[in-house]
Design goal:
heterotrimer, A alpha/beta (about 500), B alpha+beta (about 525), C mainly alpha (about 100), A: about 500 residues, alpha/beta, Amidase signature (AS) enzymes, 11-stranded mixed β-sheet, 15 helices, about 10% strand, B: alpha+beta, Arc Repressor Mutant, subunit A, 3 domains, 10-stranded mixed β-sheet, 17 helices, about 20% strand
Amino acid sequence: MANFDQLSAAQIAAGVRAGDFSATEVARASLDAVDAREPQVQAFLEVSADLALKAAERTDQARARGEELGPLAGVPCAFKDNMHLVGTHTTCASRMLENYESTFTATCVQRMLDAGATPIGKANMDEFAFGSSTESSAFHRTNNPWDTTRVPGGSSGGSAAAVASGEVTVSLGSDTGGSIRQPASLCGVVGMKPTYGAVSRYGVVAFGSSLDQVGPFGRRVEDVALAMNALVSPGRDPFDSTSQDCPIDFLEHLEDPIAGKRVGIVPQLMEVQGLTDEVRDAVNGAARALEDQGAQVVEVDLPNIASAISAYYVIAPCEAFSNLARFDGVRYGYQEQGCATLAEQTSLSRAHGFGEEAKRRQMLGAYLLSSGVYDTYYYPAQQVRTLITQDYERAYEKCDVILMPAAPRTAFKFGELSDPTQMYASDMFTISNNIVGNGGVSVPLGLGRDSGLPVSAQLQGPAFRDRMLLQFARSIERAYDASGIVAPDFAGKGGDLA
Amino acid sequence: MRSLQEVLQDWEAVIGLEVHTELTTLETKMFCNCKLSHDDEPNTNVCPVCLGMPGALPVPNKKAIQSIVMAGLATNCQIQKHSMFYRKHYFYPDMAKNFQTTQGPVAFCMYGHLDLEVSGEGASERPDGVETGTDTVAAHDVAAPVTVRKAEDGSYTVPIRILRIHMEEDAAKMVHVGGEEGRIADATESLIDYNRCGTPLIELVTEPDLRTPEEARLFMEKLQQTFRTLGISDCSLESGSMRCDGNVSLRRRGTRELGTKTELKNINSFKSLHDGLEYEIRRQAEVLEEGGIIYQETRHWEPSRKRTVVMRVKETADDYRLFPDPDLAPFDLSDEFIDDCRARIPELPDAKRDRYIASYGLKRADAAQIAGDPVTAGFFEEAADGVDARVVPTIANVMVNLVPAFDALTPAQVRSISTLLASDAITFAQAREVLEAVNGTQDDPERVVDERGMRQVTDTGALEPIVDEVLDRCQDQVQQYHDGNKKVVGYLVGQCMKASKGKGNPKLFNQLLRQKLEA
Amino acid sequence: MPLSQKDVAGIADYARIALTGDELQEMTAYMNEAVELLKPITEYDLDGVEPTFHPIGDLSNVMGGDVVDASVRALPIDVALKNAGSSEGRYFRVPSILGTEEGDR
């Protein structure tokens, strides 16, 4: 029988439903693949074999009782380690939370489980999601399955690598400035950041509360659509004030043709410094592929887009400082021992619990929010946010979606980008969408002409038009015949369905 | 130190209050669905949200927002349709997130006022002829102008402006262990109970319009009455569900520039508020008169030693890194929402007092006292329901002077005893005795009066022979009366009472005696 | 004007992040570089532009009911305390709070 890594999420759910194989068999196959592939990939911080087998057993028992199974029945799934799941640790890849046991389960995780998904484990990430390479994880690096000497991108690098290596079928990541779309691009998988508010943030450790959004990874657009259906059902989460009802069903129009629709290209973005030729050419190729399917390509302007990075690096550190203030070593988290006073305990717990980048961002945020400085940077940054939002609104009068790169270049080597400010530039195509809150998806375009590594296009759309984004993504996927590809070094390694 | 009256002849005290009130009548906390704790075991009512667990998110309690809007409407505030929650950061473990969710420059309620009526001894704290100017703080031009209206008897009415009332969350309770008397300074460790953390809290800030400790006390009293009437809090200063900080500075009479203020904390009774402010005013006057300097500092009132001590010197303004909370959507209150809140507001104490005066002819002081407390007012109205209008002032009199001594009287019992009193069937002293007998029972006072044969004889025909007998017996006193000593009637009434074995009505004896003596 | 080490030490003190001498020097350099990167924000003409504190703008008045959900989210005492570095009985425990200022609230 086939290796489970060749099956789509829908095929797994259908197979479990039909009795072709059990959820337990799929779970064992996934755990087996994890065993075989993890030594080279290192996508996981924790493999939750017991939880996985118990969940799969429940699915099988439900089937035996004749119950209707969920749309993700038996589908192996990984969760970024900033998402709570009772029975696992949630470390955010930080010493600060090394021993933190989840006290509740995040809404996004629960909804995947409710849809029948099998929780394989918790995926590596940049510490507290600060980074674009997963190198700032306090525990270990994660290797890009396409070239293990290279980074998987970040911050959701583990989630992207676990899917690209075929260890799991789908995974969840979070995207604050590109943390789903950029690693998806570097690992050659589909990664979606839905519109802000579409997916509940309850139970996901916050980085930038007005920027963070949870979304799925998959090797197929269809798998991502299936996961999106689970994440937005049955409607807004009453535990997240910023959560909103999101239109479903993501599968319904997935195969509809895009003929007659308009694809926007921002010429300014195709010329930015740091964008490699192979990526630019590949994205232009994607535009032609959409044209071939009857879409119209139009030029649109986002005049204030260059300021998105500055606005982001004001807003994100401020929100990060505020969100991470709670890690004081009192109620949870690393606690320095032997301190005479609370002030000493707090300062040393935070100094020794947080990694460098986490400290940098909090320090910057604490400075930018201080009185006087707030008016110089924070308030104007939020005004610039308005300008960028208006730019997008005007652009979407002329087009349905905007096509651009997801990352300026393919996966880089470990340690290659060591200067933090240089690293920030790797998010230049993704950040603006977090600033305005709209949805975006990165779709593989095959391997780069020069690097031989995965290259992706990014599609951005207006608020809550995420279904249409996936419809476009599916059109690209179809043109590139890029559906379901596992990184070749790992495809079929362990994971056969007995 | 000189007395308050002396000090206030030379100095004007400028007082502002910050009042925190927990919305104790709600079921749940401000941003989560944990039960509001009263006497629960430590850390019983906690969840990821109020423990500030990573990944938890706040959802505002609708009833809390309704409550603060009601509080604003009841204190003549302008309800701000558009406002937001902000995060106020400081590292202290009683705030689980190390920031407090509160409001920014715009609060739900802004620019209100309460009118104070100051009379009696308290009014004398404010020297005659001194008017509060309208220029104290020009923070809002829309509130009532600050002018004092004085009456002949020295009492006066003054509006106290309210700058804002904002919504926020309360902190956890900390127990300091290892030190003497739980004092922070010597404690070797502290224990934290997050039950209170996240309790809905409204903070009211007045303009510095108060001028005397008595005004401050009356303001707090009126605020307590108003909030209790609204039913949004039990407003207990003792238990800390209502807390008050006072800011006070002095300036020479006739000058306008504000002096350096100190902040007074640990005020847990109306008396502490009055006495703490009085002490602080007298202390500041002494320092200033000796050429000293007042430092901007927080001072702790020690009621047992009747003094304030320094808690903390504020050298620079605290920087709390305030910014709008991204986890909480902004508010854009609709007219419907505000109108709905308005419709939930019951009759407020001032209106109730005026109605009692107009419809029942109550004395102003009695009416104000009864109307001030919603439980008392409800009791009174039930007792007065369907009663002859002439009896109602007696009910009010009983409510004010007799009822507070008992804990378990029913409105029906008060109605019954008041009816007996109004018809002169018993004396006030007898009424007290009867109430003692029926307190905590369902017994009708009238039955007790009859059982004990207390009912006084009010039939003049039966009393006249006794009066005649006494006048006949006490010729000396009769002569004294005719010589101008009218007070001697009291003695004669006493003789009549004795002769009637206490059954005669003293008021009637008095009348009959006077009639006969003048005849 | 660039931030001095003293400025950065003050921020670190407020943010409760202990820094060694070397770390302070490094942090100061980083912060000055980062702030320089933010300059474009200060160069905009933003007169009359409303800020966007919350993306996806038209969301407002989100509130929940005043209903106890003890069975859904309240944490049993062992769960509430299980991640705490130090506890005593039913309480969380901290060392002496001497030198720690309570906020003004």
